[in-house]
Amino acid sequence: MIPGEFTYHRPSSVAEAVAILANHGDEARPLSGGHSLIPMMKLRMAAPEHLVDLGGIPTLKGISEDGDTISIGAMTTQHDLIDSGLLSAKLPIIAETSRLIADPQIRYVGTLGGNVANGDPGNDMPALMQCLDASYVLTGPDGERQVAARAFYEAAYFTALAPEEILTSVRIPVPAAGHGYAYEKLKRKVGDYATAAAAIVLTMNGGTVGTCSVALTNVADTPLFASEAGQILTGSTLDAETVKRAVAAAEAITQPASDGRGPAEYRTKMAGIMVERALARAAERARS
Amino acid sequence: MSDIEQIPVTMTVNGKKVQRFVEPRTLLIHFLREDLNLTGPHIGCETSHCGACTVEMNGMSVKSCTLFAVQANDAELTTIEGMANADGTLSALQEGFRQMHGLQCGFCTPGMITRAHTLLQENPNPTEDEIRMGISGNLCRCTGYQNIVKAIQYAAAKLNGTDFQEAAE
User: Fold this and answer.
1) Domain stops at, among A146, A173, A200
2) Residue B48 to residue A7, Cβ atoms within 8 A
């Protein structure tokens, strides 16, 4: 399997990369880790005439903290996310999720930016970013704009990113210290996309849920922010009846495909189970 | 003939500096096998699942079927051909695979050994679970993995100067 021909660009700055993209429009694609794009190019399902390798832009890599926000450069790899002391202290759900993505070799190369920008509903980071209420920084010829992860995804592989823009970083508000979290992913084997997965971040006040946010992976054309499920759980004591209502609310917004991972009804049910399991683990981890 | 410009690449492969001109679409695995005649890294699934094409690049295990050679410009690469000790004797991992019968048909072995090499660099004393997760990007269709795990445990013990008492299954 050999990709089609293309002209290779390796810019050393974001401005240079954006200029190349603006010049070539739809015929150009940015390359980050390439573990989604290169397989598509090998199958000739993608055939960009110009490939803009972002690997030579040092400013796109790294994790930093600025007040209540953590900023992660788009070219930061899954391996870097797992390795980060700052993230393990402030946002441990990111490493937990990264470890469930693909396999070790792919995590050395696969990037956060690529994972969230590609628009593949199978990717795990988009739902997590919705759960965390992250924003994406998009840089184009006219400068920067920010789009909330919850408003970024339009359909499978269709996002708010314009062809001449690059997703340069992800900004995540740091959740309260002592928050509970869990990413639960059902998959058939290492390296598989989720049959269904759920991300949950919550805070507890005594025995009551202070805040709760829920998002789902790979049970629709886009990641799903399950706002109603989160609202039902907020203020509750996580009693069985409330949890059941929240699970039903999460299941109700799913629209999975029937495929090798199971019939749609099964995947909807599994999304509910993932919510239930993530909720139990997040509550156990939360400090009141 | 293509009118796409060939691009110069320089890399250090198994300690030797190499320079070539490549078409941008040349995958790293094809560059290694066809331009450098290093046929140890294998082409298995070609879809980044099987890990037979695994090589070490700048201290990371990567699947060379899912990288372009141009992305490895200026990189340090090690393939199975660079795994033996400097005097040509088997490395601890190679010896472990031999002693513990860590291979049958041998197709996955170059990828397994290069992957295990990086794993032991990062974690010199892994648990069985850590080994199994560490090689979860490498498929073997013969051994059932049992003896591969033992081969890696054998190598870790040898490198740590401790005894590995278990026998191959």
Assistant:
1) A173
2) no
Which CA distances in Å does A267 have to A100, A122, A126, A176? Answer: 18, 13, 18, 32
Q: What is the pLDDT of residues A252-271, one digit of tens each?
A: 999 999 999 999 999 999 99
A19 touches chain B (CB under 8 A): no
Q: Write out pLDDT tens, residues A60-104.
A: 999 999 999 999 999 999 999 999 999 999 999 999 999 999 999
Name the residue type at position B32.
L
Spell out which residues of chain B touch residue A187, defining contact as CB-CB under 8 Å: none
Radius of gyration of chain A (CA): 19
Q: Give all strands (DSSP E) within chain A, no chain letters.
A: 7-9, 28-31, 50-53, 63-66, 69-73, 135-140, 143-148, 153-155, 158-159, 166-173, 180-186, 196-205, 208-217, 224-225
Q: Which pair of tokens denotes residue A252?
A: 């109700």
My answer on whether B32 and B72 are in the same domain is yes
Query: Which ipTM score applies to this complex?
Result: 0.95
Q: What is the CATH number of the domain that holds B149?
A: 1.10.150.120
Domain match, B78 and B96 both: no
